[in-house]
Amino acid sequence: DAGITQSPRHKVTETGTPVTLRCHQTENHRYMYWYRQDPGHGLRLIHYSYGVKDTDKGEVSDGYSVSRSKTEDFLLTLESATSSQTSVYFCAIRDRDGQYNEQFFGPGTRLTVL
Amino acid sequence: QKEVEQNSGPLSVPEGAIASLNCTYSDRGSQSFFWYRQYSGKSPELIMFIYSNGDKEDGRFTAQLNKASQYVSLLIRDSQPSDSATYLCAVRSGTYKYIFGTGTRLKVLA
């Protein structure tokens, strides 16, 4: 257990509404990541952070923004949700002490956009 | 586009047999390689990682890496029904990023 929690765990929303997902970690890891997982596509990187206020885009960043104002929290925002953003969202951290920079995942958030 | 390829399966093996899962990757500069197990409806769980060419064993699991051929494999000995899951291969690409395969679904038949 890498001390990662995600909230909410499940959410149903309507097209066009803003949605914010939260990832919280308790072990002071520097690197945090947001992925989405869809059938046939595997895990795809949305955004990542390498420190407070330091973020960068992944391969599927369109329609998403992130913020990291403190080490323990990494927020993912869908400014105007679309049905194509229905997915399972996973937060991950990179273990600062890991020899091989292992990633560990949170429990996930299942988001449905109607 | 850097890629990680896996056969989607399902790979079916009888209980007690060896399950062999394979993964190829395109980025020759990749340094670290990971295997995750994911049960349906759950998050990926790290089970093995490997850095150097050759074999790395941990209990019933053996990871094998061949950088020249750009493949990494996972062997599961004495497969159990509880090993039935999707296995994700991941490769660290550059300093920050990780690329995942789409996973191989393993079924262990009792």
How does this model look, in words?
The complex is a heterodimer of chains A (114) and B (110). By secondary structure, chain A is mostly beta strands. Chain A contains no helices and eleven strands. In chain A, strands 2, 4, 5, 6, 9, 10 and 11 form a seven-stranded mixed β-sheet that branches. In chain A, a hairpin with a 2-residue loop joins strand 7 (64-70) and strand 8. Chain B has 110 residues and is an all-beta fold. Chain B has no helices and eleven strands. In chain B, strands 2, 4, 5, 9, 10 and 11 form a six-stranded mixed β-sheet that branches. The model of chain B has no long low-confidence stretch (mean pLDDT 94). Classes of the chains: A mainly beta (114), B mainly beta (110). The A-B interface holds A 31, 33, 35, 40-45, 48, 50, 56, 58, 90, 94, 99-108 and B 32, 34, 36, 42-46, 49-51, 88, 90, 92, 96-98, 100-103.
The H/E string of chain B reads: EEEEEEEEEEE
What percent strand of chain B?
over 45%
- Rounded to an integer, what's the Rg of chain A over CA atoms? 13 Å
Query: Largest sheet of chain A, if any?
Result: 7 strands, mixed
Concise account of the structure shown:
By secondary structure, chain A is mostly beta strands.
Record the SSE blueprint.
The complex is a heterodimer of chains A (114) and B (110).
Chain A: E1 4-7, E2 10-13, E3 19-25, E4 31-38, E5 42-51, E6 54-57, E7 64-70, E8 73-78, E9 87-94, E10 103-105, E11 109-113
Parallel strand pairs in A: 2-11
Antiparallel strand pairs in A: 1-3, 3-8, 4-5, 4-9, 5-6, 7-8, 9-10, 9-11
Chain B: E1 4-6, E2 11-14, E3 19-25, E4 32-38, E5 45-50, E6 54-58, E7 61-66, E8 71-76, E9 85-93, E10 97-100, E11 104-109
